[in-house]
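Re: the 652-residue chain
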Amino acid sequence: MTLWWSGVGEPSFVFDVGPFPPGNILTTPVQTGGPAGCALAYGLVHSPKKPKVLLLEAGGKNADPNFRVDGQRWLTFTNPDLNWGYKTTPQARCGDRVLDYSRGIGLGGSSAINFGVFTVGARDDYEEWARIVGDDAFRWESVQARLKRLENFHSTPPAGVSSKYVAPKASDHGSSGPLHVGFPAECETDLVPLLDAFEQAGYPLNPDHNSGNPIGMSLLISSSHKGQRSTAQDLLVPCPENLTILTESPVQRVLLQGEKAVGVEANGKRYFASKEVILSAGALDTPRILMHSGIGPKEQLEQHGIPVVRDVPAIGRGLRDHAFCPLVHTRTENSTGRAGFYGEQAVMDAALEEWKKHGTGPWAKFATMMGIGFFKLDGLASSAEFKSLPADEQRYLNSETVPHFEIASHFPIHWFLPGFRNEDLNYSCLLVFLYNSQGRGTVTLQSSDPNVPLLFDPKFLEHPFDRRSAIESLREALRFTRTASYAKDTVSTLAAPKSDSDEDLLEYWAQTIGSSWHMTGTVKMGKPGDVDCAVDNHFRVMGIEGLRVADMSVVPVLPSCHVQAVACKLPSLSKACWPGGQKLTCTLLGGQISPAPYVLKSWCRNMVLRSRAPSCRNGISGFYGRNNLRDRRRLIKRCLPSHSQHTAPRPC
């Protein structure tokens, strides 16, 4: 019996109660939105032996179709039924602000609440990853081949958009995978003129940011299709006969015999595995599970009375993330169409009815397409902060395809700025993203209760290079807004720094910075003996037998993209072999994962589990709403037989 724990977005377990064929390859077709668990379940239930699979999910079914409105994808994270509600600790360099650190809950996980940006990163990201871990399986050529197998790219550009702006090569994309990505049928009227403005200001256009070289300004490829956002649970619709899905259930720790993983504990029940346990709970929660299992920094475990099985100081360190800040300007009356749509509630209501009937109309147009640009900073390499970096890091940052910052347009910021006036709805919003963070944050224990989330401290702007990069990125974005090609339509400034001095730029970052939810690196992959690493290139936790990690926590670089595509590819990169010659390939979506596939019972062959801590909204150990511990235990008791019984789980 193999135990697999998976899930970045929400707690879920999966029990395979049927035979698993020896030598069979576990393939993970990634679905739109990325969560590994659903992708794994999809692969299992469609494998030749058709094993019976029970999937347990900590959250709900997320079945409301209104969660899928493409133009409203920016708002789903505000729904407390879909979001664990995580926050950072106060950020010292950001005015002690506590920042949103959202993670999704329910079927689909964080793929149900992200912003649908589907970018694969830079070719040189993967070359660096391969160098760090000493394994060519992580090089771009190998990674791209795997991505193409899971992608179903719809290359038709929006109406009226020429090949000057969108010209992807078929050789760079897949067309038959389960993950639907592409462009909306229509885009907002000022989007192409904005790309022209960038070109006129001297920035290159890029007809395909997912070719392996993202440098330049592009039209965004999104994880949506025909007016509807996709999430991980799409892989499981219609639900196969050999799959049982049980929602609303969590897990606390890995069970160990000495330094060997033998199972997991979930709400008082113990489930045992005869082969391996694989954690895929993401960069914020995989460390929590490991620590409460006695695997982690010795001083933290002892402080909270957790028996130490193995002292692994690297676990919980190395947190990296992208951050952003906005630039907002009102524009001339006829340069955008936003005021006529967002300014009239009756128009939006009628558009929603059209979307419900046909999946078309303004909600399949407005806020469904962005301009996205990845750029180099000419003077960054000559700065003292850059020159103080290690030689390998300097070489990587100077690589041809690695951008120094990102600009994304058409973010619907009127939903997020308090008191935004209807008369300002003809606006332009550019988000400036800080890349290549050199700071290393932490996720640390705050309680001996395994249901309590860790403390999340990304340490934004604490590293000197990060401050220099933030200053120069924002300065360059400001330079663009002052060019004639952009400024000709600007009426007033709603959000921007006071000036382009270093002090004012850095202060503006501190006042407006937000996390991109691209958390990475807290159970870092590396070579045996690397003091800052916890897993090897086969995803095995060093020093613990039968335990692997496959999620964004292991990624040793901060990819130059919005990371859901990276997470989707993760499991398929593993070359590790199961006993009997089975090859492990698993896929995960780093900031956004969903229910996983596989396994349980004393006579089962394979088990997969995912877990996530409950939100702490009312005190350090408080659960809320439908996710309280009593309800979860009742649900598990109702739907699962005792682990000593030789009966299949009952559908709920």
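The chain has a mean pLDDT of 81.
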